[in-house]
Specification:
338 residues, alpha/beta, six-stranded mixed β-sheet
Length: 338
Amino acid sequence: MNDFKVVVDAGHGGNDPGAVANGVREKDLTLEISQYMYERFRELGIPVTLTRSTDETVDSQERVRRILEAYGNNANVIVISNHINSTATPNSAEGAEVIYALRNEDTLARNILSALESQGQIARRVYQRRSSTDPSKDYYFIHRETGVTQPVIVEYGFINNERDLERITQNYRRYVDAIVNAVIETEGGSGSNVPSSSQYIVKAGDTLWKIAKQYGTTVNEIKSLNGLTSDFLSIGQVLNIPMSSMTYTVKGGDTLWKIARQYGTTVDAIKALNGLTSDFLSIGQVLKIPNNTLLYTVKSGDTLWTIAVRNNVTVDAIKRLNGLTSDIIYVGQVLKLR
């Protein structure tokens, strides 16, 4: 599926706190998760919107209205509804679940659950739930009332399981990064207008050489960007990948000037990279787009100084590129390095 769009739904809110346990309210945690997910999709150039960005009450009818009005009632709209599970008996269940609509296949849901598992969360199940009064319809309104869109409910774990809740609160940024990559890999497909991801999740059989070859970079560049001192990789490890170019598929109405402006480059740079001798474009044509942006995801123990030294840039340059007014950074923060 090409040209997909994403609606991120922060479950509950306002007068509806959702599940409450261990001093945490579901509505607060889902909003935090959803805001970070929104930023990650936006940074990658994927059209994305939030059903709520504050602690407001949004009833089911209004939530559905916002979903359908975001990008229309279309099958290329992915709806990710973020939730935290709960059980009647504390600590009796743990792990993530993904629920998908009766009208959809399970591919996206399974890939999302696998992504969560790759980051250390327990994977419980992927399933559908039918209405008890009409088995031909979905149980959850987010599936039942959202037209032909592709909605999934992601239950990250159980709020009244202390181990589960600790995993979520400590690792939700990693979980979201993995989910975003899973959505792109599932829905982007060949020839998508989505820029190549600047992050890669290590799979079984991967080597630095294999990954470097896949992305047109070098082993040393990957090691330098990620602060690696050996070639050892672990399954589920998130690597930042230095990207020298990305691809774009020409659509109706596109011009070289319009594409260059969209990606912060020049017409001449695009023409040189693709060996073009004229400004003529054809629909469906795949262009290489110059990409000089280098991204870095902050890890525990990082400082602006260590990041700058490791990547041969200056602290002032990093602060200027990212609009930082202090030296404070946080784990999971994505910084532009150049």
